[in-house]
Structure formats: structure tokens, C-alpha cells
Design a protein that fits this description.
globular, Mycobacterial_A85_antigen, Rossmann fold, 8-stranded mixed sheet, 35% helix, AB_hydrolase_fold, 353 residues, alpha/beta, membrane
Length: 353
Amino acid sequence: MSPNDNELGIVIPTPNPSHESGAHMPLVQRSLRSVTALSALAVALLVSLSLLTVGAGTASAWGPPGTKGFRDATINGYGMDVKTRVRTWASQTSNPKTAPTVIFLDGLRATNDVNGWEKETNVAYLSRHGYNVVMPVGGQSSFYEDWNAASPTAGQRAPYRWRSVLTKSLPAYLNSIGFSGNRTLVGLSMAASSAVMMATDYPQLYKRAVSMSGFMHLTAPGMQTMLRAAAFDAGRFDLNNMYGIFPNISAFTRDPTLNLPRMAGKHFLLYAGTGAWGGRNPVGRTWVDNIGTGLDGSAIEVLSMEQSRTFALAAQIAGAKVRADFPAVGIHSWGYWQDEIWNISNSGWFFNG
């Protein structure tokens, strides 16, 4: 297990005094202390049972060439091994220059054919409801960051440069095709913390962020151990090649919970289920597959829910504009995420937060 924050000499920052009352301070501190303790227990369970990731399915992608408003383009990937593609669907019912632009970031097991959101869900159909839809392709185990070095264990020759893509070439490309600057980053699981931090660091590029079953305290006790195990399992990536050996400053500057004072005024939406099974569980080939996949999804979602609830409370106290949805049923599975995107769309949150 990784050392805890106190042993490292790291002080968990509390919200900016200009956005809080003194009475709220003990509540935030207690919440953050409890999240680290609970995270350690949950991580131990996840690692011991090898419940590290949820694999991708085999559903067909929607949005073939020829669909109205569809583009499949290659943009500057800053030397990454695989060409950086982005698939986009312009709004079919409104002017793309004024329609909200929703950018979907993939999960840990992202593939290089299409984004998991396209492969596993129908959210590209948002383009028929007044939205521009954007799906970058690739980034398995990347956390959408610029890595310090290539990961030889994964067969990389050049390091990931996803943060550069998301802050430079992707916004430039979206401007070039006439998509509006009213942009939301939707980060799924692995990508959730990256989406939140990107919206925090680059408000001129991204007006809001969605954390979809994400993890908001990446340096909590045991989290770094889990993340390293998961990344190695998904593509044999060595996270020491991302920021260096933990502890390091980059890991702390990318941890949403440690950056709460900078989030005043930012728009976030946090979603996580309780881990309880429901009608949207993935279907396996046999009942054994169903049980195994469901248990995996439940364990991971419990950890996400626990961190997301605590972060939502702390971010509100820090002055962020937070909407939270924590339904009574839901595991770490595409069906629940698809439903939540349509719930957000129906609420109008993508328009103005």
C-alpha cells in the first residue's frame, strides 16, 4: 500500500476561506479523513479479489461515414505511437456554432478502433437533440495525461501526450469545424479525475466537467497501488512512466481532492451508483459470467460512490457549483452510464450547468 498523506507530510487542503463559513471546516476535514480510511479498505478488497477493471463489450459502433454531420479525422498527437483520431457528430437540429459540445473521454480499457462510448452506448444520438458530440479515440490506461516517458512494458516507443491533445489540438480542431466553445468534458472512470482537473486548469477551454463513476482522491491510501495494478492489467502499462515513482508532485497536483481551493465557481456533475444490481447489469455468456461481471462492477462502484459523495460535499463547500446524482441502484457498467447521460441531457445541464 502507498503511504498515507500524513506520513508523506502532505496536508489535505481545505476550501478557500472566502467561500466557506468556519462551521463547515470540521465537516470537510472529517469527510476527507473518512474517505481515506474507507478507500484503503475498499482498495484492499478490490486488489485481493482482482476486481480491478470492467472490460469492453462487443456492441457495434454507431455513426458510420455518411451519417449527417459525421466526421472521422486525425489530429496532432504530439508524437504518440498511434495516430490520434477524433470522431464527431454535429448537431442535426441546431447550429453547431451555438449547440453545446459534449466530449466523451473513455475508460481504462479504451481501444484504438472507436471510443467505448460509441461502441457500447447510443449517446452519439445526442446530435439529433441539439448537441455536438465528440469522441477522441484511444488512450488505454493513459489517464489522459502527458507521460514523462514511454512505457516499455506496454510496447510503447513514444509517451502518451493526451493532456496536450485535450488542451491544444482538440480545441483547435473543434474550432476549425465550427463547434461551439460551450464545452463539457465527460470523464468515465479512469478519465473522471482528468476531466475535473482539466475543467479546473483550463476554464477557457472547458466550461464544465462530468465525473462518471470516477475516483476523486487518487492519492488516498491504497489508491496508487490499485491504479498501478489496474493499468498493468489493462495493456501492461507501468504508471511509474507517467509521473515517476510515487510519491511525486504531479500525482498530487492531479488529485481533485487536493485541489479543492481552486475549484470555486467551477461547474461539476458527479454520478456514481451504490453497487446494487439492477436492470442495466452487463449480460455475460453464462450465469457465471453474469455473477463475476456483476461482482466486479459492484466493488468498483462502491469505491467510486464513496469518493464521489465526499468530493461533491467538499467541492460545494469550496464554492464549486455541483450537481450530484447518486441513485440507489447501479454498478460500474455502460448501461447505467448511458442512462445518466440522457438524464443530464434532459435536464439541460449541458447548456449552462
